[in-house]
């Protein structure tokens, strides 16, 4: 695990990320808060591209919890059966829809605790939804952020909770909102798992990773 980078280096890293992409966006398609929660829940152990392919037609007919209930579990399965763990995910989506209709008037709640109480929604999903829909600086740590944070020294930690805390503690507040997407996209396309593209990396002179692929 890398040591924690200092304030000025982290500020320079995010200044460069911001100059390269001022408004980084997530890659999961959605049309409202509800479809975002469903898309994020479906994306566990699946790619965003695969989820988008499955939800393209689904969200045209089931973009609210009530419409999802009307659709029913078997029809939902037909839409998402190309996604890993689809049976379990379908069950959770239906249970979630029932709870949203019965307890939240069909609306998606926007506290972390309320989101996490929904079937199939863990801390990571809750944080993605808080960040992407409500623009709250919540930090969802996925495999890309975990890898990048530890290699670079931006937000090292032995587990996802420690990395989440390191992000909140060390990334300057003016970068907190977009930090999630800058790091995911950097991890997904540049600081990739097997052979990181260090030679083309815009922060290679600041990153602490000892085995750079130059
Ligand atoms: S220099 Fe290499 S290891 Fe460091 S952030 Fe860039 S791609 Fe990742």
Describe the structure using short key phrases:
214 residues; binds iron/sulfur cluster; 58% helix; mainly alpha
Gist of the model:
The protein is mainly α and 214 residues long. 58% of the residues lie in helices and 0% in strands. The longest helix is centred in the middle third of the chain and has 18 residues, at 86-103.
- Overall geometric form: elongated
Strand tally:
0
- Give the SSE order as H and E letters: HHHHHHHHHHH
Class computed from helices, strands and strand pairing: mainly alpha
Low-confidence stretches: none
Percent of residues in β-strands: under 5%
Mean pLDDT: 95
The small molecules bound here are: iron/sulfur cluster
Tell me the number of helical segments per DSSP (H or I, 4 or more residues long): 11
Largest β-sheet summary: none
Q: What value does the Rg take, in angstroms?
A: 18 Å
Q: In whole angstroms, how far apart are the ends?
A: 20 Å
Fraction of helical residues: 55-70%
Task: Draw up the topology in text.
Elements: H1 7-20, H2 33-42, H3 48-61, H4 65-71, H5 73-80, H6 86-103, H7 112-116, H8 123-132, H9 143-152, H10 160-170, H11 173-189
Bound molecules: iron/sulfur cluster (SF4).
Iron/sulfur cluster is lined by residues 148, 151-152, 190-191, 196-198, 201, 203-204, 207, 209, 212.
